[in-house]
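INFO worker-7 received task bundle
INFO bundle size: 2
INFO processing item 0
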Amino acid sequence: MNMKTEPFNPSRLAPEVREVLAAIAASGAPSLAALPFPQMRKAYKQLGVTLGGDSLPVREIRELRADGPAGPIPLRLYLPEANVAADAVTVYVHGGGWSIGDLDSHDKICRRLARAAGCAVVGIDYRLAPEHPAPAGPEDVLAAIRWLSRHAVELDLDPRRMAVAGDSAGGSLSAMACQKLRGEPFTLRAQVLFYPSTDLSPRSWNFSSRRENGSVPPLTLDLMRVLSDPFCVNFNTKDPRLSPLLEHDLSNLPPALIVTAECDLLRDDGRFYRDALGAAGVPVEYFEVPGMIHGFLEMAGVLPVGVQTIDRAGKFLRAHLA
């Protein structure tokens, strides 16, 4: 679907964001949307290396494998400092438009979250499009969380104190997981959604944030199409596994923290999901970061609000996993 974006006024951006985007433009690096997927994935990972700040120490990291519908699913378990009882666990689902991103691209975020929340964090390396279109990624996320709940005790984790978190596409998959895992033997006690995508159906292209922010890097409308189209191919985009906002029953879901960015084309996805959860009686904390762009958590080394946002998410998780 073709959409004409509105002219964007750069003065809406926070000054530190303007500096970062100017530096990226001056570097001469090609647009992600112009790269083949192998090179796009390398460039995306390099973003976190360059702009993500320090790789904070944690007590221990373990590489795990969960049983999945198409074979083992790589997981990475982070344990916080030695003086923290880390039996509570937050599953982290990385972003990247369902087509890029992995455990390494979000390693710094998982480390920060483990320290801020004082709990174990488990990252999921789910299958990506275009090699594995929908519903492969959602199926992997569900399988990994179920596996973790069954094996939590042997990992010194408490299956009664689990939460889920994710950014962008990972926020969508986290919201989806909360919906699909209702009625399971375990209960997810909280969900943290950082600038999530919640609607990939055709109607979403009419969201005002798509028009207002569709030309704002790093996530432009062109890049969103390049990333999401291979994921959605031959699959109904109204399916809640792709568009959790379209789930007809949002009752009895875990309390949510939803974070959006003012200058992000996914801003309205988060706003509308906040409204839908609230209407269904789900407790929601929501905040929108003024002047900020999509992906700011991955730029925490140059955008201090990324660190502040992880700290706020850590407090939310501590409260709900206590």
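INFO item 0 finished
INFO processing item 1
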Amino acid sequence: MTHTTPGAASAPMGRRERKKAATRQAIADAALRLFLERGYDDVGIREIADAADVSTTTLFKHFPVKEALVFDEDADQETRLIAAVRERPQGQSIPAALREHALRHRVAADGDARFTAFFDLVNSAPALRDYGQNMWLRHTTALAQAIAEESGLSTDDPACTALAHFALEAPRAARSHTDPRQAVTRAFDLLEQGWSALAPHP
């Protein structure tokens, strides 16, 4: 979703990088505004470029496909997922760290009207649903690798892939429940029990 802040990273960006980040943000913001106003399928690329005051060539340099305009935090999401595993407190299990990450970044927004509108937009267009699903599951490989390295298991251990997959899917499945936070907690309780029986470390 388009709510990152350009230049928010700890390392300061140069002038050129700041300009590129600002341009990308302007395009993403214009796209989301138009999509929410009129619907994803009824907004064209040229309209988005005009609204952001850029050329279509510039737009495609930042977003190679239309669907990417809606999901502009792909890399950031993966970075946060990996950090949740690698930077967890000593003694905390990997499923517990991923549960906290899910509650903090995925479920906390459930009461936010802006996020509700965003999810409604995604669910209204099959192309967005498919792209979002594929984007989210692409993180499975990177997350599974981090899990394997942190737990001392082989990178091709199916338990690591399974934990990564279900950890990514739990917040999505929880959104259909009346109490998403409780649903996420229940799902991760199950993952915790299974993981503790398989992993060599607690």
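INFO item 1 finished
INFO post-check item 1: Residues 126-151 form the longest helix (26 residues).
INFO post-check item 1: Residues 15-69 form a domain with the Arc Repressor Mutant, subunit A fold (CATH 1.10.10.60).
INFO worker-7 idle
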